[in-house]
Design brief:
Rossmann fold, 296 residues, seven-stranded mixed sheet
C-alpha cells in the first residue's frame, strides 16, 4: 500500500448527497480525486471533478485509479464494486453500511480471486494525517505522527485519535475496517501492512463486541509483529448478553443466534492479555500505554 497525495482516487456515487459532501472535504484536504461515477449523471462536473456514467469511461478519459470510494445504496454496492474490480482498481472503500450479507460473500470471493483489498462496509475509510483523506474520517482529530490506528468501532475511532493527538502522539495512518457483520479486510491484514510501514512505530487496535477473530489477531501479533501494539475493546463494562455495533451488525447477530462468550468484550480482552498485549480500560488511557510501549 502506497498512499500519497498523488494517488489517483475515484468516487462512485459522487452525486449522492454524502458522496458530494465528502468528495468536497477530501479534495479540500489535498486528496487527488480525479473523477466520479454516477450512472445517468455523466457529462457534468461536481466540485471541479468530471462525472462519468461508467468506471470504464472514467478510466478511458482520466487514466487508472489507485482507490475507489463507494457511496451508493446498499443494494447497489455489489454491482458498483464488481465494476471497479473489473476495471482493475486494487483498493475499494465501502462507506455504505447495511450491505446484504450474500452480496458481501459474493463480492469477497471475487475480491480474493483478484487480490483486491476491500475496506468496509460501514467504513469511514483511511486517513494519512496531513497528506491523504479517503472517505469520511473526521480529519480534525488527527495529527501527523508515528502511531498507526486500526479500528472497528466507528466514531469511537475519533475519540482515540483525539486522545493520542492531545497527548502528543500523532498518527501515521488511521484505518476504519467497518462495523457490519461481514467486512472485507481484517485486523491481521492491516497489521501486516503496518508492520512493514517505516512511518509507523506503534499500533493501536480499537475493537468492539461482536465477531470472534481476536484469538487469531492476538496470535498473529505475538508471532509476527515486532512493533508495540496496544488494544482497546469497547463494551468492556457492558452486560455479556448485550452487543455493541451499528444496527445492521446487531440484526445480523440476532438472526445468526444468541451472543456467544467469544464475541463479548470480556473474552476479547482476555485473548489479548494472554499474549501480553496491553489493553486500555478506556480510550483516555491509551496514550499512557503507547508511551510505556515506546520506551521499552
Amino acid at each position: 500500500m502506497n498512499l500519497t497525495p498523488e494517488s489517483n482516487v475515484l468516487v462512485q456515487g459522487i452525486t449522492q448527497p454524502l458522496g458530494s459532501y465528502y468528495t468536497a472535504r477530501m479534495k479540500a484536504y489535498g486528496t487527488n480525486v480525479v473523477a466520479g461515477v454516477s450512472p445517468g449523471q455523466g457529462g457534468q462536473q461536481l466540485h471541479g471533478i468530471p462525472v462519468f456514467d461508467l468506471v470504464e469511461e472514467a478510466i478511458s478519459e482520466c487514466g487508472s485509479f489507485d482507490t475507489t470510494i463507494i457511496f451508493v445504496e446498499p443494494y447497489g454496492i455489489l454491482d458498483a464494486a464488481l465494476e471497479a474490480i473489473d476495471a482493475g482498481i486494487g483498493q475499494i472503500i465501502l462507506v455504505t453500511g447495511g450491505v446484504p450479507p450474500l452480496d458481501m460473500v459474493s463480492l469477497l470471493q471475487t475480491a480474493q480471486a483478484s487480490k483486491t483489498l476491500i475496506l468496509g462496509p460501514s467504513s469511514s475509510g483511511i486517513i494519512v494525517p496531513g497528506k491523504v483523506l479517503l472517505g469520511t474520517q473526521a480529519s480534525e482529530f488527527y495529527s501527523p505522527g508515528s502511531v498507526g490506528l486500526i479500528s472497528r468501532a466507528g466514531a469511537l475511532t475519533y475519540e482515540v485519535a483525539l486522545a493520542l493527538t492531545q497527548a502528543g502522539f500523532g498518527q501515521s495512518i488511521g484505518i476504519s475496517l467497518g462495523s457490519d457483520a461481514i467486512i472485507g479486510s481484517s485486523f491481521c491484514q492491516w497489521l501486516e501492512v503496518l508492520a512493514m510501514d517505516k512511518a509507523t512505530k506503534a499500533i493501536v487496535l480499537v475493537d468492539q463486541t461482536g465477531g470472534s477473530t481476536e484469538e487469531a489477531t492476538a496470535e498473529y501479533i505475538a508471532k509476527g509483529i515486532n512493533k508495540p501494539v496496544i488494544a482497546y475493546v469497547a463494551g468492556h463494562y457492558t452486560s455479556e448478553d448485550k452487543q455493541l455495533g451499528n444496527s445492521s451488525a446487531i440484526l445480523a447477530a440476532q438472526f445468526s443466534g444468541p451472543v456467544t462468550s467469544t464475541t463479548t468484550a470480556q473474552y476479547k480482552v482476555e485473548a489479548f492479555k494472554q499474549v501480553k498485549i496491553p489493553v486500555a480500560e478506556c480510550p483516555s488511557r491509551i496514550p499512557n500505554l503507547v508511551k510505556k510501549a515506546l520506551k521499552k
